[in-house]
Amino acid sequence: MALVDIGANLAHESFAADFDAMLARAQAAGVETIVVTGSCAASNEQALGFARMPPADGRPRLYATAGLHPHHAADWSPTLAGRIAELARATEVVALGECGLDYFRDLSPRPAQRAAFVAQLEGAIAAGKPVFLHQRDAHDDFAAILREHRAALVDAVVHCFTDTAEACADYLALDCHIGLTGWICDERRGSHLNDVARLIPADRLLIETDAPYLLPRTLRPKPKDRRNEPAYLPAVCEAVAAARGEPPAQVALRTRDNARRFFRLGPAG
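Below the sequence we write its predicted structure tokens.
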């Protein structure tokens, strides 16, 4: 299987010690492309740096996003907005975000989250690039803001989707893509995603690890630590395929092609 991981936080400190080995494991597992998530000023720069590494045999092709996660929304400033606009002009930056709303943790005040979200949607419209979106426990406000801007956006993916089938239907009605993670492999919290996976049209489905988070619980043997990494993307693919009643190879092919189209990646290689 040739897979695309549409969201991995490779700027996370846990990858510093074995970055090259981690990429080699991903390649060996069939992951041909990884979109590295930018979520704050520092990770935006790191993600772009990774995407600009010279191509090399034995590791996936890397691309980047640039944005401000709602956890950091209080850090939004004209300086950061200007830098994200500069990053958006780089060919290696294939989407704006991770941006959105998170009322589950509320690490930034909700008015600041909404203001930063709107500003980043407007920036994506100006840049002509798709948006990489985050929503947790904030569906009503998130959908309302997105609805106001969706017609002018190039495209949108609600990444790491963990919400209800009803919320998914609302995003599909807004012509969004949906990114599924190892949450679907969690029989304790993610069993409802089996129904969600069947709801998503084949041309709107994407898969991701959200590494180092959301280690698939279906992995056998179990890894020695809890760190997730792109090499475990096949477990997500297999769980999604099982939920949809489709062969894993079919889900791999379709999600790879969807990712190439969504991020304008072109053919592999």
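The CA atoms of residues 1 and 249 lie 6 Å apart.
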